[in-house]
UniProtKB/TrEMBL annotation:
Native source organism of the sequence: Schaalia odontolytica F0309
Record feature DNA-binding region, as residue ranges: 28-47
GO molecular function ontology, one term from the record: DNA binding
Keywords on record: DNA-binding
Domain HTH tetR-type: 5-65
Protein name listed in UniProt: Transcriptional regulator, TetR family
Keyword match Hydrolase: no
Length: 179
């Protein structure tokens, strides 16, 4: 038997579906709860507002894009940025809802985990942590600049710049730290 789907998941699914046809600013809690088959009370138990739900969906989507990629870590960054670009309104609303420090810390920590998972396990834990943190912070800064500029630049162009600077740089950095 499949585990029950909780109200948050139902509301997240309903919001994703609604956003395919309606801008976030035109979606009501009433319509969303009807679509999700949950009560307004359940909505307000989990979320303070539609923007709060949107921020939760944003975090869920970003986490999924960063953790499901099996290729190079920059491929996961590109997939994440492509999703953000394709969901411009939701991303912009999430950026307004989530405190800036929380948003950048969220991105940096998930990107650091992603990078560290791709580093050779033969390197010391300290070296892996230092290298992953460095490249995560650099990547987060590139993403922040791109996001704060309104997500206007095609993510493929933004990621191309990162690839020039970061491709094949983690292993040499680990080597330099081992000396």
């Amino acid at each position: 038997m499949a585990p029950p789907i909780d109200a948050r998941e139902k509301l997240g699914t309903a919001l994703r579906q609604a956003l395919t046809q309606t801008p976030l600013s035109k979606i009501s809690v009433s319509a969303l709860t009807r679509s999700a088959g949950v009560t307004r009370q359940a909505f307000y138990y989990h979320f303070n507002s539609l923007n709060d739900l949107n921020a939760w969906v944003f975090r869920t989507e970003v986490t999924a894009h960063l953790t499901t990629s099996s290729g190079e870590w920059l491929d996961a960054i590109e997939a994440t940025m492509t999703w953000m670009h394709a969901h411009h309104d939701e991303t912009a609303a999430a950026m307004k809802t989530i405190e800036a420090n929380d948003l950048w810390a969220f991105l940096a920590s998930h990107i650091q985990e992603l990078i560290e998972s791709r580093l050779p396990s033969s390197a010391s834990a300290t070296a892996r942590d230092v290298v992953a943190q460095h490249f995560a912070l650099a990547t987060t800064a590139h993403m922040a600049q791109w996001m704060l500029s309104g997500l206007e630049v095609n993510p493929s162009l933004a990621i191309a710049r990162m690839r020039v600077l970061m491709t094949d740089q983690t292993t040499p950095a680990l080597g330099r730290l081992a000396k």
